[in-house]
Amino acid sequence: MASSTRSLRALFAHPAFGQGARAIAGPALGTLALGPVTGVAMARSGLPLPAVLGMSFLVYASASQLACLPMLLAGAPLWVIVLTALMLNVRFVVFSAHWRRYFGLLPRPQRLWLAYLAGDPVYVRFMQRYPRRAPDQLAYFLGLALCNWAAWHVASLAGIFLADAIPAAWDLRFIGVLALLGSAMPMISDRPSWLVAAVAGAIGLLGQGWPFGLQVVAAIGAAMAAGRWAERRTAAA
Q: 110: which of 55, 101, 138, 167 lies 20 to 30 Å off by Cα?
């Protein structure tokens, strides 16, 4: 126990931890904007407060929470809700496959903890800094991930507990969309990713009004197919 505590202190005191915290400061602004939107949506969903707090801390996935909450309230079939959450988060399979090269030798409990802290801006900033393994990579990851995690929960809890003070006439969804776009745009850096974004956006717009938010599932499926096709074309060129 004492050795584990010393190891953690050494990681937090490492210069790379501070560098990671500073690197995530910009993307964390998007997290701070999206957190209250998600918190308000959860608080106004009608779910009991313990369930809302549990979702905020355990799920820790803004896109899934915003997509699945309306389905829960509309009484959508469980398989639709689960499928939507799985498809929204399938990108983390790709993230974890890349991170395995860096953290695959760590004990399983540590890997599970790192997986919980993973996020889109964390992945982008980490891979920009470390195209290959390095001695200080874990400290840098924790600097990124813990600061992003803290920003999310501070903002989300603020939305949950201040929901009654925010006029119902305010449409916070627009802020949420802007925050999501701000998080996604840095990852759109080549033609395949632009194609994926265009296909997903087009299906999402065309599917407005579909029951249970099924346009989300359709947009993700179509985007995955478009990305796979674009990768094959690029590899064959």
A: 55
Q: What angle do CA 97, 139, 187 make, to 5 degrees?
A: 45
DSSP 136: T
Question: Contact at 8 Å (CB) between 91 and 197?
Answer: no
Q: How far apart are CA 83 and CA 204, in angstroms?
A: 16
Whether 186 shows a pLDDT value over 80: the answer reads: no
Mutual orientation of helices 91-103 and 137-161 as an angle, nearest 10°?
140
Tell me what the pLDDT averaged over the chain comes to: 79
From the CA atom positions of the chain, what is the Rg in Å? 19
The residue segments making up the domain with residue 220 are 188-237
- Quick check: 103 and 133 in contact, CB under 8 A? no
pLDDT band at 21; cut points 50, 70, 90: very high
Q: For residues 216 and 177, state if they share a domain.
A: no
Domain total of the chain: 2
**The token pair that represents 131 in the structure block:** 């195209």
Domain boundary among 160, 185, 210: 185
pLDDT tens-digit series, residues 27-83 = 787 777 778 878 888 887 777 888 888 888 888 877 777 777 777 777 778 888 888
Residues 136 and 208 reside in one and the same domain: no
Q: What's CA 20's distance to the chain center, in Å?
A: 17
- Same-domain check for residues 15 and 129: yes
Same domain, yes or no: 41 and 27: yes
Token pair, residue 101, equals: 């090269």
Same domain? 125 vs 215: no
Reported as a single tens digit per residue, the pLDDT across 76-85 is 788 888 888 8
- Rounded Cα–Cα distance for residues 58 and 74 (Å): 22
